[in-house]
Amino acid sequence: MTEPTGQPRAPFRSAPSGNLHDIERPDPSLIELTDIAHHLALICRYNGGTSRHYSVAEHSIRVALLCPPEMRYRALMHDSPEFALGDVTRGLKKVLSPTYLPLEQLWEAAIAERFGIDLRQWQSEMCTGGIINANDLALGATEGCCLVAGYRPDSTPPIENYDWQCLRERFGARYKSGTMCQPSVAAELFLIAAEAFANAKA
Domain 11-201: which topology? Predict the structure, then answer.
């Protein structure tokens, strides 16, 4: 467990590390990939308005798999600031934009520094017209049909021709049995994907 220098004005403690962050002054040295995976796996997209637990971690993996191999690590991390800021719905984000967007950019910069991501390239890929943004929006439309509109149980949005058996083989035997509805499985697969994608971009 690590504490920041000085007293945080807006404290936030992440798990499982127990590190104490300042929401307004993110310290790259305090950011752990295991914390990002843990939080994103427990945070449900659409403010929980889905037919099953559909985590930000699962969404991130799916977006990454839609992107070219050299871009997948950055795509996997596209929602990583949400481990600290939460998954804010589109409507609420518009209301909070004068405050929220600068905070999101601060966390993007801190995460980019911590994990060796080219910030300018990453942000260009995530902005309107960028490949990560385009795949994020495309997947969001599919999620809306499969998981939000109509609440069809056990429906999962397709990604190319991948199924979870294929992903188990792709990421290795460490992937445990279970479904991505289980946060522990989503968190583990997020970490395995991060390792695989980081190696691919190296």
Answer: Hypothetical protein af1432 (1.10.3210)
